Protein 1
Amino acid sequence: MDSPHAYNRVAGHSVERLAALSDGIFGVGMTLLVLDLRVPESELVHDERGLAYALLAILPQGIMYLMSFATLGIFWVGQQTQLNHLDRSDRHLTWIHIAFLFGVTLLPFSTKLLAEYYHYRTALAAYWLNILFLGSMLYASWGYAFRNGLLKADVGAGTASAVCRRIIWAQSLYALGAALCLVDTRLSIAAIVAVQLYYVAAPGYRRAVGSPNP
Amino acid sequence: MDSPHAYNRVAGHSVERLAALSDGIFGVGMTLLVLDLRVPESELVHDERGLAYALLAILPQGIMYLMSFATLGIFWVGQQTQLNHLDRSDRHLTWIHIAFLFGVTLLPFSTKLLAEYYHYRTALAAYWLNILFLGSMLYASWGYAFRNGLLKADVGAGTASAVCRRIIWAQSLYALGAALCLVDTRLSIAAIVAVQLYYVAAPGYRRAVGSPNP
Amino acid sequence: MDSPHAYNRVAGHSVERLAALSDGIFGVGMTLLVLDLRVPESELVHDERGLAYALLAILPQGIMYLMSFATLGIFWVGQQTQLNHLDRSDRHLTWIHIAFLFGVTLLPFSTKLLAEYYHYRTALAAYWLNILFLGSMLYASWGYAFRNGLLKADVGAGTASAVCRRIIWAQSLYALGAALCLVDTRLSIAAIVAVQLYYVAAPGYRRAVGSPNP
Amino acid sequence: MDSPHAYNRVAGHSVERLAALSDGIFGVGMTLLVLDLRVPESELVHDERGLAYALLAILPQGIMYLMSFATLGIFWVGQQTQLNHLDRSDRHLTWIHIAFLFGVTLLPFSTKLLAEYYHYRTALAAYWLNILFLGSMLYASWGYAFRNGLLKADVGAGTASAVCRRIIWAQSLYALGAALCLVDTRLSIAAIVAVQLYYVAAPGYRRAVGSPNP
């Protein structure tokens, strides 16, 4: 009986609870930034046109919120996909996911930072480090689950490596986009948004799924 | 083996997780606006009557909060009904629902905007666009699920088209209500609230369900 | 085919989703008030004794937070008990519960109001109306579920009426406590807290459960 | 028929609901503190170097947030492990867990207090009392469940006592760390962080689990 590890062996096994905690944290994170969207001050608005202009003035903030929401959505789908394929968890895997969730709670902050300082490379670097951290944790958790036999029996080697390749591809594109800040930070942001839109829309996916010989 | 789509084919399949994320976001959204209900400043209140007046003064805000809560409730019931009839999800459907949830997080903002600027058509238009966006996403997700065979086997064509008709009816009534702002924005708000109350109360529903020959 | 009600007949059936939404709303509500607990300003604290006094100064707020948390806990247990005994829901029952949840989100506000104006009958009346509303909604939902055959098959008439009696008893005690404000509002608050503590502790419960002949 | 206890006997039985409420509260708690991380004021930042310095200036807050997140993570894993081994709950056990959750919502406050007043023993004592309260509630709930036969059938006496030992060990280490504040509060904080890191990393765990003769 390996006494000091007896507790650790029974800790953190529930994938469902991990999923529920994640959904709670993502749910709060996805609504936090909207708190920064302030209704225009009524002293400054005197007619319809004034209100329309005031709303246009907070549009950049709104777009930044949309971008943050989409980024959280991408990582939520990624994490959900991984958890779906887990047969069970263990305490190390649980902690890798908690680290991932820490990165999730920071994302609204890095997005706000980038929105305020979009012409600063430092802000872009901070945003990119956040994305990199999230990708690394997803990669680490998948690799750990694969090596320690925590995946479901029906997850073939094909799916297992597809997930890894996907993370590496996405992170390479993000890194490339971030590197463009050496030219211009706005170019860099545009590239990152383009990568994100690509992953949201996934063009060609339905055609591939619907094909008779998948 | 269609490699670039291998990941997409396993992503976003869990209806349960989508439901859990939605409940988290609705839960936060439904409590956010109450943060704006401020307890009256104690410097301004000197006796029972003063406190009663101070509470009356924030009643309009309270009613606006109730209206926002009811609207979120209507869309929560709508989305829950749809998810209940899904056999499974896929990545496109998941993203349509995430877009829907984005609209949900904006609703407290548009409600506040309308509360502050209830005599402005611009505010009413913004509120109506939010409602329209939510309805469109619900319609899109149901249509997508129907066309791609993601509905449960026991969902007959009757139920499928009842859901579509319901969304179109509700949205037509909302659009009609919004159009009344050409006359008076307050008339418009009253009409929208009346439509919402109708959908909350659903008069005649129990009688119909309880009838021997349904 | 009763067309206008076809949608209503399939809407709002999921007890699990209703429970998940409730847990989200209770979870947010139970943490909202702690945001009002402010760490003492460092300008006002110069030594250990100063910090201890500053913490003592926010103790009343802390106790009010504990009271609000306990009240939410009582109603969470009540609502959870009801939902556990539901076989299924329907759209009316779902809306009664959403109304209940509206009362839940107001509770942090009424508690803050009472904390700030504990010597005002108006504040006590507002707090009591909130409690009364919550109890009424629980009573309405249980009665509706009972009359319309939505309870699980193993819920005997004994349990069904025990739940009703419980709500009426608790509400009578709260009303009695609130009526004491005609003498002194502080007496009234003490009585309400005593009732709450009684329901939290439930003295004699374990002895009764553990007895050989229950 | 023991009438006054009839309600209590059916109340609070759902472990799943208790888990869902906990995940909601932990989820909100884990994101609350990030609200205090403020993006640097743009008036104070004039170039890349200025932004980098401004970010460095809020690094201590960031570390404190990480520490609070990790502490919540530790107690989340602990509570999740306990709930996983419960066969069912009853109303007393539910209330012990609600008390535990109360301590959880206070943790962001005590962490902020310690961050602001890290050189004050009073702040350290408050933080430690919070940790002690959480540990005590976990111990109480496990003991109660064990004594009243609420654990799952497959939980052997070995696991049952391993959980108790674990809590006592951890709390002893925390108490020892807190006692170091008699020398220096910073030494005390370092010791507590070291204990937390040890429990997060759990060195040697995988080796023990993966060994052929566990």
Note: The mean pLDDT of chain A is 86.
Protein 2
Amino acid sequence: MTDFAATRAAFELPEGVIYLDGNSLGPLPRGAADRAARVMREEWGGMLITAWNRAGWMDLPGRVGDRIGRLIGAPAGSVTTGDTLSIKVWQALAAATRLRPGRRVILSDTGNFPSDLYMATGLCRLLGDGWRLETVAPEAVAGAIDDRVAVLMLTEVDYRTGRLHDMADLTARAHAAGAITVWDLAHSAGAIAVDVTGAGADFAVGCTYKYLNGGPGAPAFIYAAPRHAEAAEAALSGWLGHAAPFEFEAAYRPAPGVARMRVGTPPILQLAALDAALDVWEGVSPADLRAASIRLSEAFIARVEAGCPDLTLAAPRDPAHRGSQVSFRHPEGYAIVQALIARGVIGDFRAPDILRFGFAPLYLTLEEVERAADILTEVMAGRAWDSEAFRRRAAVT
Amino acid sequence: MTDFAATRAAFELPEGVIYLDGNSLGPLPRGAADRAARVMREEWGGMLITAWNRAGWMDLPGRVGDRIGRLIGAPAGSVTTGDTLSIKVWQALAAATRLRPGRRVILSDTGNFPSDLYMATGLCRLLGDGWRLETVAPEAVAGAIDDRVAVLMLTEVDYRTGRLHDMADLTARAHAAGAITVWDLAHSAGAIAVDVTGAGADFAVGCTYKYLNGGPGAPAFIYAAPRHAEAAEAALSGWLGHAAPFEFEAAYRPAPGVARMRVGTPPILQLAALDAALDVWEGVSPADLRAASIRLSEAFIARVEAGCPDLTLAAPRDPAHRGSQVSFRHPEGYAIVQALIARGVIGDFRAPDILRFGFAPLYLTLEEVERAADILTEVMAGRAWDSEAFRRRAAVT
């Protein structure tokens, strides 16, 4: 049995806050702050340039990648880390397009995170030659996969609604039509049980500052199925993806396997914080995590629906079709979220009308979730959100 | 007058080490460690997601960009930060290629850093349609600029030899031929006096972990001349380069100006460390810095040439044609550098035969530089490098 009291104790959580926004930025693991301080003073400060070897910095992207691999069902050596999720989406897409010459369509859905769609559009524009992104409604994806599709690019869990795609089923359909899949696991890794190997995924990418608690701007990860790794082209062919970066050869030669997806100098401070954050996952069973997440989200939905008739559930009602977040709709969603934050309940707002609440069993208790639902009920009943101060939108929420 | 005793006191420097490798990784500014600790505990730990607004994280890439802008002669609002240098090279190149439709050549030199050449090759491959990278010897660049050239991509200071290109002259020649320039300032920013505006540069990029002391994997920067900023296309069109990222629009609309060159979620821990590292530059005069750098490198060359007849100067003899580093050649360069490191003098080796020494007046004294030359003289005179232990090459040096 996973000891969730122990995992909760591993985090610094501010007094008086119920944090339902770990799906945007996970909280600070105590070990991450200590590790970053040590890396700065002892490694950077004390070893200077020699830390690249002596402190093992050069291999950190792959070592951290392997730890993430264990959380998503990827074998050792098939995941590396670095850059941002948008860059890794681009790399996976560019590699995938090369594997299906003759086809010209990247298929995605309208619920995908906009940056994934923007990156795909930008790639198509550079590729020219008829390449285009096509999007359909999430529920229409299965029916839209045909033999024009080179790449099926989907985010497994919808960032607004929490709707969960069936990765294994859609991957099988894509393969049957001769397409390659790129899965974005931003809201999956650390949130639900993920098995890229079992699902047959070709490429997968994700970020680490949400449920993996790696910190603001923590690096992204990329998985290439071993069957593709040697054929995959690293379109962003930087020196640290070279087979022998320190030979400084004039021509690019890709490193073996997924290591070719490294680009430039890795962000060591962020990687070290992430590495420490992953310590919390040792001993966490994916099945326990999923069961606890469903328990929390079901309790929240029941209590909010009972108390807040004006909020409309935007997440799938069946937990089997939901990630680890719950969303409601309301035209004044932004102001409601601000009123909640003022009362110590941190969720977030996603345009145009989504109130979004993430459930991370590593540090969240059933009691907190119930109290959060009660506070939301008070805010709605008393129209506590109805003030100018709460309605004024800031750049980020 | 710049107070170099004060700037030196701002760094944590290990006892017994003479550090001549700040051109690879600058040492730890005391303020950077304190700032990173504060960002982790007070902002990430204490404010959680709300720190994106409350702690000003969202604007940090531009604020830090403006501070770097002041060191390279760029106006406010023309520089942003993020990603790695290789990614920023790609973005600048991709934007530049779009500004010269009809042409198909990116011109560079064989002394350029390999990653820049790799990224250019990768971009040409994606663009197809006859796009190609052509390289000539560094001294042949001026004569090779013709009306086939869309983009002239150069690194101002050669990473091996320290040779300095004349940015203003080559930019003027490029413009006369109708080409766009992309300047890599990796070994220029914080090393020499740089004036991208005066030189008329179109795009410039650089890293911040060398002379700017931002820490291992600190983010890169990119400058777009204001005359191009609104026309420049962000080929890696990520959500944080969108005009309104938090509207989550289906279609990409670039942010005004250089902000469109942002891609994904910024690495806040690295950016905060870099921001603190830039504090050291307040009050440093570029002219004083350049004069001090030349004093140090001239003293080093004179003393090494007097004591080490087997070492061949690989850097330009005229300091006006040199950056802030000095290189020598020797077939056993790797082992010699290892023997020096064992004696507390940290320089580095660059394949195939370059011993490389960087001079950063912010924390390096003339006395240290002379002592380093004396230790190198002892190592050479006694063949102290001639041992198996020093000859065994590690992955990074």
Note: DSSP finds 15 helices and 15 strands in chain A.
